[in-house]
Automatic annotation (TrEMBL):
Native source organism of the sequence: Caenorhabditis latens
Segments crossing the lipid bilayer: 34-57, 69-95, 115-136, 168-189, 227-255, 275-299, 311-334
Record key words, sorted: Membrane, Transmembrane, Transmembrane helix
Record bears the keyword Transmembrane helix: yes
PANTHER family assigned to the protein according to its UniProt record, in alphabetical order: SERPENTINE RECEPTOR, CLASS I, SERPENTINE RECEPTOR, CLASS T
UniProt-recorded name of the protein: G-protein coupled receptors family 1 profile domain-containing protein
Length: 372
């Protein structure tokens, strides 16, 4: 073919008629270091969290069995969900191209859509134990006559019927909330997956020249982007609301403790106040790491298609998988009993048995008695 007096080769002719893909991540998938880094973090997380499991079960002397159960479930479910993510998923967005890409050894066996559904269920169990921990701590601290005591309020409101909220009532409420929110999130997520033919037509119409995306293992092309952002928005709102409720409840519990200074011993009061503050710190730390993935998914949507975000995505994925570690470490560090056990049995740091006063210089009065 001759154009403008020049002969155009067939390959050049095809490039003129066929647009090229402008999305960098489709031609250069994520770094191969994602899988080994995730495995290393998971092994480290397993060692630290199993230490946390041990001290909760065998070294908690001042806590009730119910509180230890909720605390153990909190740590275990977060470790399980993030470990599942590291081994079978490592899913990161290819945005602004509407797709998710998984880097794992099971890409040819498990679909990204299926494993993401399982991960949502696992993380929802973490939320259940988190709420359970809040309820148990709330009931231990709040005064019987307080306005914030649900049982007390129920007695006042339903005085004619002489009803009171028993323990099973809270179990029903938590289970009902879980069975309502989790299926709703899964239903929204189901709209993110479509038949293969529909995905091909979607890419051909909206992203011509990007057909190579189908060659990537573990890729999930999302034709309904609104469903994905609805899911991320719901998860973010649920997390923010839960954290807000937790912080408000912690403030109320501290307020309730301040009203019981005359009824409690100093040791009991200081212990209860410290547990409330320490638990709040642990939740804030965990939620900060867990929220990194959702925030990056939103931010990456506004990135340039030519941007190389592989290093940032790898870092975000590592922080996300890392989430169980700082919460467990802070729990051990803030608890004097746990900290002492780790220092003496893991770090092998024994306290000196020598009394400092034994070798101290004599007081001025002792000096006078020696010479006069």
């Amino acid at each position: 073919m001759i154009v403008g007096g020049q002969d155009i080769q067939p390959s050049t002719r095809r490039s003129m008629t066929q647009p090229t893909c402008q999305y960098f991540l489709l031609k250069n998938p994520h770094e191969p270091t994602v899988i080994p880094l995730s495995f290393f973090i998971t092994i480290l997380s397993t060692a630290i969290n199993f230490l946390g499991f041990y001290v909760i079960l065998y070294k908690s002397k001042k806590e009730t069995k119910l509180f230890k159960f909720t605390l153990f479930g909190n740590l275990f479910t977060l470790w399980l969900s993030q470990g599942f993510w590291a081994i079978t998923m490592n899913t990161m967005p290819l945005f602004p191209f509407p797709a998710l890409f998984s880097s794992s050894l099971f890409n040819n066996i498990l679909s990204t859509h299926s494993v993401f559904r399982i991960w949502i269920v696992l993380l929802s169990f973490f939320a259940v134990f988190l709420v359970g921990q809040l309820i148990v701590r709330h009931r231990m601290v709040v005064r019987a006559e307080s306005f914030f005591n649900v049982s007390s309020c129920s007695n006042r409101i339903m005085k004619l019927y002489k009803l009171q909220f028993p323990n099973w009532f809270y179990i029903v409420v938590v289970a009902g909330g879980w069975s309502s929110i989790t299926p709703f999130l899964l239903a929204v997520w189901s709209y993110c997956d479509t038949p293969e033919l529909e995905k091909i037509e979607f890419v051909q119409q909206n992203f011509p020249g990007c057909s190579e995306v189908f060659n990537l293992p573990g890729v999930l092309i999302i034709t309904n982007v609104n469903a994905l952002y609805a899911l991320l928005g719901l998860m973010a709102l649920t997390g923010i609301a839960a954290e807000g409720v937790y912080i408000i409840s912690s403030v109320l519990m501290l307020f309730e403790l301040s009203k019981q200074t005359r009824k409690m011993s100093n040791n009991n009061f200081n212990h209860q106040r410290k547990v409330v503050v320490d638990t709040t710190i642990q939740i804030v730390i965990k939620s900060t790491f867990i929220s990194t993935w959702a925030f990056w998914a939103v931010i990456s949507y506004f990135m340039s298609p030519q941007s190389d975000t592989r290093i940032v995505s790898t870092t975000i994925n590592c922080l996300f998988v890392f989430a169980p570690i700082p919460g467990t470490v802070s729990m051990i560090f803030l608890n004097s009993t746990y900290r002492k056990f780790v220092a003496e049995n893991v770090l092998r740091r024994k306290r000196s048995n020598v009394s400092p006063s034994r070798y101290a210089l004599p007081m001025q009065a002792d000096l006078k008695s020696q010479f006069f």
